[in-house]
Structures are given as structure tokens and as C-alpha cells.
Amino acid sequence: QVQLVESGGGSVQPGESLRLSCVVSGSTSDRYWAIGWFRQAPGKEREGVSCTTTTDGDTYYADAVRGRFSISGDTAKRMVYLQMISLKPEDTALYYCAALDWRSEDINSAREMCALNEADYWGQGTQVTVSS
Questions:
Q1: What is the C-alpha to C-alpha distance for residues 116 and 13, in angstroms, rounded to an integer?
Q2: What pLDDT, on a 0 to 100 scale, did the predictor assign at position 77?
Q3: Phi, psi of 38 (to 5 degrees)
């Protein structure tokens, strides 16, 4: 089966940076229509942080992270990244990477992938804690 494994999480102080990584394994395909990062904070539901299509570069960022987070990928290495700068306590959450094989009637853009909170494959999550 396809597996996504996140890494790079940790405990940092406000204003510091982290880069999350996700490796995709267990598939003969090295292309996915879209990839994304989601997070779930204590006591809250999972939300889309950043999603992007691999075909046309359509990219979406949640209002709370726009300007501070950057999503990228490396198809050859089967990796997806989330660069996070100027971290805030509100960013504390379990972060998940996810992938979609192809677009659907419900998901036809990066924004819709993040908004609908759906994917074909999910990682197990990596914890990010921002505190003083």
C-alpha cells in the first residue's frame, strides 16, 4: 500500500522555524495530482493548511499561515515539504501530509482539496509545538 511518513516536527519557541518533510513509498507511480498539509490542534478539528496541484502549480494557503508557510515537492525523491517560519503558539498541532491520485467532481483545485479535507493517502502525523 501507499504510505506517507512525516518527519521534522519538534518543540520550538515563537518566532522560530521548522521544515516538515514527508516521504511517499509503496507505489510505482511518482506523480500525484495534488499534495497537501493538514493539521489538527488539541480540541479542534483537522484543517487544511496548504495544498498544491502538481500539474499546473495551483497553490492554496490558509489565511492563518499565508506569508509564513511554503509548500514544495520533489518528485524524484518522492518527497513533499512544508517550510514554516515565524511560528506562533497557534500553530501548535499534529501535522499530516496527504496526497490525491487525481482530481474529482468534488475536488478540482488546491483550495478545494484543503477545504474539503479529503485525500487518498494520509501520513501518521508529526507534532509541532510552539511555546515559550
A1: 31
A2: 83
A3: -130, 160
What is the 8-class DSSP label of residue 112? H
Residue 91 DSSP label: G
Concatenating the DSSP letter of every residue in 39-54 gives EE-TTS--EEEEEEET
φ, ψ (nearest 5 deg) of residue 117: 60, 45
Residue 53, class by beta-carbon neighbours within 10 Å (0-12 exposed, 13-18 middle, 19+ buried)?
buried
What does pLDDT average to in each consecutive run of 10 residues of the chain (132 residues)? 93 98 79 92 97 91 98 87 98 96 91 96 97 95
Q: How many residues does the chain have?
A: 132
Look at the block and give the residue holding cell 498539509. Answer: 37
**Alpha carbon separation from 109 to 6, 81, 100 (Å, rounded):** 23, 19, 11
Write the single-letter amino acid at 13. Q
Q: How far apart are CA 132 and CA 127, in angstroms?
A: 16
Distance, in Å, from the CA atom of 109 to the CA atom of 77, rounded to the nearest integer, reads: 24
Contact 47, 38 (CB under 8 A): yes
